[in-house]
Amino acid sequence: MTIYNFSAGPAVLPKPVLEKAQAELLDYQGSGMSVLEMSHRSKEFDKIIKDAESLLRELMGIPDNYRVLFLQGGASLQFTMIPLNLAKGRKAYYLVGGSWGKKAYTEAVKLSKTIPFEPILLASTEDTVYDHIPEFDAKDIDPDAAYVHLTTNNTIEGTSVYNLPDTNGVPIVADMSSNILAVRYNVEDFGMIYAGAQKNIGPAGVVVAIIREDLLNDEPALSAMLDYRIQADAGSLYNTPPAYSIYIAKMVFEWVKEMGGVDEMEKINREKSGLLYDFIEQSDFYTSPVKNPKDRSVANVPFVTPSKELDAKFVAEATPLGFKNIKGHRSVGGMRASLYNAFPRQGVLDLIDFMKKFEAENS
Asked: Which of 61, 216, 232, 286 has the fewest CB atoms within 10 Å, i.e. is most exposed?
């Protein structure tokens, strides 16, 4: 039986990457050591981390005046690090189009109790359960603010920001955790991009941070571990980094390059998600909770049946057939198909076949 992993994260990884990691597990390229036990100061790991950065720069078109960091703590730690390093004594705006954006804003509010800065909720669609991307007037933004924070893809709710909003000249800081390398963005349109690895980059344990050099903090942060300037100057080696996760990420970057790069990945992802959206659109049984088709995520496709009871039955019948982790997030219910870069097109076709059968038996 073929297993299709629809998990939103940790998520499916490219099979060739896993096979190569398996082959090199005991002996990395004749070193006699596994990457799991290798010194992060060794010449072997030095090449791994430098190759990872070089590949990511090539894939995303990252300009020379941006620093690339491989950090720990996942994207959630960035919710604190960003205002701590970038916003002291200034305003910081938050566009909240989903649960993760709200978490980022909530952490900023918490931090503002001890660090002097002003987090401002720019716009939110929480009152409609984040069924669309919020809009705002750029004139409402103080041009002297530190940044405008947004989430480019809302994993739980299935919405995305593809066309960046006017922010009155204020740098955009973007949580790109769930659609980095899946769709093309122009890095120069952002002051900072960050992404947890466990969706399109590799296993959990590392976060990629891409920061424009002029935004690096001049004043020391609360802790060296939370200080972008220190981390950048140390080349992500201030302390022992999540070495194995960076090694897998490097191989994923190689795989994306072999697949044709980010533009080709976007083409594949739009085709995959389009198949599922088209089927949902023509069905009288399934519906998408996303209000505006232009906001639909190519990475995460939530859908529901006519009732919660049928949703539960769908998940119960789909799981033993190999459609794993198809259940929607507990906060919204229903189902969710996460179609990241490594998810196969055939998995979408097989899911649609099951959906047709389930509809015929239960409508």
From this structure: 61
